[in-house]
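REQUEST ID: PR-0412
SUBMITTED BY: lab tech R.K.
PRIORITY: routine
TASK: structure prediction, single protein chain
INPUT:
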Amino acid sequence: MEYGEAAFYGPKLDFMIKDAIGRRWQLGTIQVDYNLPKRFQLEYTDEDNTKKTPVMIHRAPFGSLERFCAVLIEHTSGHFPLWLTPDQVAILPLSEKYNDYAQEVAKKFDLGGVRATIDLRNEKLGRKIRDNELKRIPYMVIVGEKEQQDGTVAVRPQGGGEQSVKTIQEFIDEVNARVAEMTKDF
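STATUS: complete
OUTPUT:
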């Protein structure tokens, strides 16, 4: 509870966090409520067979879901951990000729537990890379003639970094291993 703030029903605990720019937000709260059980005429029978009014406990471990998500997005600048990001991979075909291969790769990713989206826009590769960088997707996979012939993908990590060529299964295994490592303590 913030100093000097009133609790409406009874004692309470508020959990405050600071966001990326130092503002404080109340995200979680636990509050004892003596008022609402009386207003709703709630009762239970005690072990001695007498009627008692219960005490209600309100809890909101993350506050409002919207506020929690907003603070999380702001804190990470949209760079979610690999296990949490909605799309883990953006598949970028070099041209429309490789859209079918991109679809095939996407199906294999899906079967392997990797969340992927395909950028089928008729744009130059540089534009697709730039746009998907702004979406904060952790990996971009580029597919063209060589990748289609070899059954591989060209992997480009978000933000640049070392690019590599891997088989589809090697890449699926790598993503799943990273996610498993990040979530092993959960």
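NOTES: Residues 168-183 form the longest helix (16 residues).
REVIEWED BY: pending
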